[in-house]
Amino acid sequence: MCTGQCARCLGLSLIPLSLICIIANALLLVPNGETTWTDNLSLQVWLMGGFIGGGLMMLRSVFSSAFGMLGSLYCLSVSGAGLRIGPKCSINGIWDYHFLETQGSYLRNDTQWDLCEKPPKVVPWNVTLFSMLVVASSLEVVLCGIQLVNATVGVFCGDCRKKDTA
Prior knowledge:
Layout: H1 3-28, H2 43-46, H3 49-56, H4 60-85, E1 89-91, E2 94-96, H5 122-157
Antiparallel strand pairs: 1-2
């Protein structure tokens, strides 16, 4: 059996085993299908050995990509909201999200940026950094998506190495 076939066989075997471990650990959290026992579950149930060790760790290449995708989507969402809402700043002694009602149009009108008295220059600071986060997290989404597809194909198809003919 070549390396690719072995990897495919192991990958195809690990997927259902991982799912079994995850489901079993989830069921351990609800003995007899009842949630009234959660105060008395053993430490081993709470350590989530089946979920983390037998489940997620077995699918690590696929799940690392998926967790990376979720993390980058979270970053993209928060950063995009930060750009749209604008910074919290003080205008005439009142601290608030003064650009909230503009729904992001303040980004095109930099004359409004000086309205924020404190912290000084907070609007360009936030716009620059949140824009960097949006760009970086967008690239991460793309790269994690590619890796997620690659890892999934690798599980089912094995690696692309050819046998040495020497």
